Amino acid sequence: MSKDPNHQLAAVMAEAGVSNKGLAKRVRDVAQRHGEHLGTTHVAVQRWLDGGGIQRQTAAFMAEALSDKLGRRVTPKDLGFPSASTTPVIEARVSYAGSLSEALVALDSLTHQRPEDDQDGDAPLSDSDVHSAALSWLVSRPDGLPTDAPGKRRVGMRDVAAVRTAAGFFMQLDFQFGGGHAHKAFRHYFREDVLPLLSGAFSPKVGDALFKAASEMSQLLAWSAYDGGNHTLSNRYMLSTLRLTQAAGDRMMGARILTNMSHQANYLRQVPRAITLARASVEGGRNHATPRAMALFSAHEARALSTAGDSKGASRAMNEAERFFERADTGDDPEWLSYMDEAELVGEFCHCFRDLGQGSEAVRFAERAVALTDPKYARTLGFCRMVLAQSHLINGDLEPAVAAAALAVEEGDALQSARFQRYVSDFQGALSSHRHNPAVQGFNERVRAAVARLDDE
Predict the structure, then answer these.
(1) 201 by DSSP, 3-state: which?
(2) Are 105 and 183 contained in the same domain?
(3) Which of 143, 331, 335, 434 has its CA 20 to 30 A from that of 61?
(4) Which residues touch 170 (CB under 8 Å, ≥6 apart)?
(5) Rounded to the nearest 5 degrees, what angle is found at the Cα of 121, between the Cα atoms of 425 and 29?
(6) Do residues 348 and 438 both lie within one domain?
(7) Which residues pair with 201 in a beta bridge?
């Protein structure tokens, strides 16, 4: 039975200007880059052009090879292999992507992974990976967006507005219910509706706005994976998003990604890494970011230094954050920065004083953070209440500590947040010496009941 020629593959090869032998070599090179060995030759390429079948992994390698050559995202479906697009077959590379197309291929692969999937086979980012990525971004220049893609869907500002609206919706879900909520719908939207736009045709103005919106949404995916407890997946999203910000020269968003990575490293008690990333965000954002953004970056440098026990350095960074925040209303802030208000800054500071062991200041700032935080930021409010509880405990005040933590658990039981759950478990560990106290026993019972309710919801 004769097969129909694969005209889609032939068209993309012609656009890329590659021969059968040239494409075969590129496929082998990409496979080797992913630790695989393929014996692809020009004979196999001709068989595919004639309509022959292909292994899903090989199709993915071919799509990546042609993406690299064309400087835009190409999928197996674009090459006439729709059945090869149904499942992911390539693990995202850990290193900082050398090209925009490589970053887009990595992001596409990541959207097929769920935060709850087994992570045993995934390699976490090493310190050398992190330092290399931060340095590469710091010294980078914008790639120049591929605005002249021929024969592609025309993208306009209406498309960008849709992406921004969706990002705002998913951000609110994340703030209110935690990172695990709606993650499946989020990554499906990003894969099917956002990534294809990045390979479309657009004007420079639209392209700049589009890539900024895509970076915003990609970092939300990174953050939700972090909040769900999959730190390797989150790391990879962040690294690919950092590379995405380079494409359009969005230094402020890039600095924010480094801040997010510092936040995560600090949470994982990777303190030297957290300090390095926070300082890279401050230096990378300087002269490019608004005062409000610089306040955020400086506050996270203070967080990392507080975890390290560097009270002098943390105090300097907090003072710098305050000085930036005093000028916050003078900048033209992007919408994604709207959450960075006084409550957020005070909340960062209460964490600092807690980690420095300064109980009185920690209580004062935590109480203020609780009072200022809008209830719509339910997860943030829960964290601040737990810091208040921990700070009371530093001062030896058991009853107010348990009362604050109990309120956090009672009002935070809808949060699907691995981070919030760790705040609670860490606090329970700190209470272990008081385990026979009736108030502590009552609190532990409330936690068990809250967890049971979560399981039922």
Answers:
(1) strand
(2) yes
(3) 143
(4) 182, 186, 189, 217, 220, 224
(5) 145
(6) yes
(7) 154
User: pLDDT band for position 179 (50/70/90)?
Assistant: low
Sorting pLDDT into bands at 50, 70 and 90, what band is 106?
A: confident
- pLDDT reported for residue 148: 65
Q: How many CB atoms lie within 10 A of CB 255?
A: 27
Residue 100: per-residue pLDDT: 86
**Cα(221)–Cα(236) distance, integer angstroms:** 10
Describe the chain by its helix, strand, coil percentages, rounded to 5.
70, 0, 30
Sign of the Cα pseudo-torsion (36, 42, 43, 46, in order): positive
Distance of alpha carbon 102 from alpha carbon 86, whole angstroms: 19
29-78 confidence digits (pLDDT tens):
888 777 677 878 888 898 899 888 888 888 888 988 888 888 777 888 88
Q: Which 8-state DSSP code applies to residue 87?
A: S
Q: 437 — phi, psi (to 5°)?
A: -70, 130
Domain count, the chain: 3
Mean pLDDT calculated for residue range 254-266: 97
Cα gap 284→232, rounded to integer Å:
24
- Is this structure's pTM higher than 0.90? no
Average per-residue pLDDT for the chain = 88
Residues linked to residue 398 through DSSP beta bridges, in sequence order: none
Instruction: Please provide the size of the chain in residues.
Output: 457
229 and 107 together in one domain: yes
For residue 383, pLDDT over 90 is answered with yes
Q: CB count, 10 Å around CB of 349?
A: 25
Q: Given 191, 218, 248, which residue is the final one in a domain?
A: 248
Q: What is the mean pLDDT of residues 161-182?
A: 78
Give CA–CA dist 33/19, Å, rounded.
Answer: 21
In a domain, residue 260? The reply is no
Question: What's the per-residue H, E or C state across 147-163?
Answer: CCCCCCCECCHHHHHHH
Q: Rounded to the nearest 5°, which phi and psi values hold at 154?
A: -80, 125
CB-CB contact of 215 with 244 (8 Å): yes
Domain carrying residue 375: 341-457
Q: Position of tokens 């609110």? A: 172
Domain's final residue, options 200, 216, 248:
248
Number of neighbours of residue 411 by Cβ within 10 angstroms:
15
Q: Tell me the residue type at 230.
A: N
CA nearest to 115, candidates 237, 217, 215, 213: 237
Q: What is the pLDDT of residue 367?
A: 97
